[in-house]
Amino acid sequence: MKVTVEKNEKVANMIFATIYPLYLNKLEKKGRTKEELNQVIKWFTGFDQDALQVLIDEKVTFGTFFENAKINPNAHLIKGVVCGYRIEEIEDEFELYKQCRRMEKLIDELARGRKMEKILREEKK
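and the corresponding structure tokens:
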């Protein structure tokens, strides 16, 4: 599937605080914890628990969320399909959409029971 300008804008304008509880609910149903979710988000974005809470309280959009994030240098290692979109085929002009899908991929892996050291990717030496 191809990302459109409209789709990218729609994601950019979504409020992170409304989606975060959905991520958490999905993970808790699978026996994972809020701490694990926050660990994955921190690895990917650099936001610790306090920073995350501020973003939630301020009801920031995904656009603002990713604008302020310090994306992990190993994020390019996140590959695969999420919601019908192959992450590595999303065009660079839709960077926000790509980052959102990468984060969802990490959360999906956590929900499926993948080990944390596999989710938090590192370059092979």
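(Above: one complete record from the training split.) The first helix runs from residue 5 to 12.
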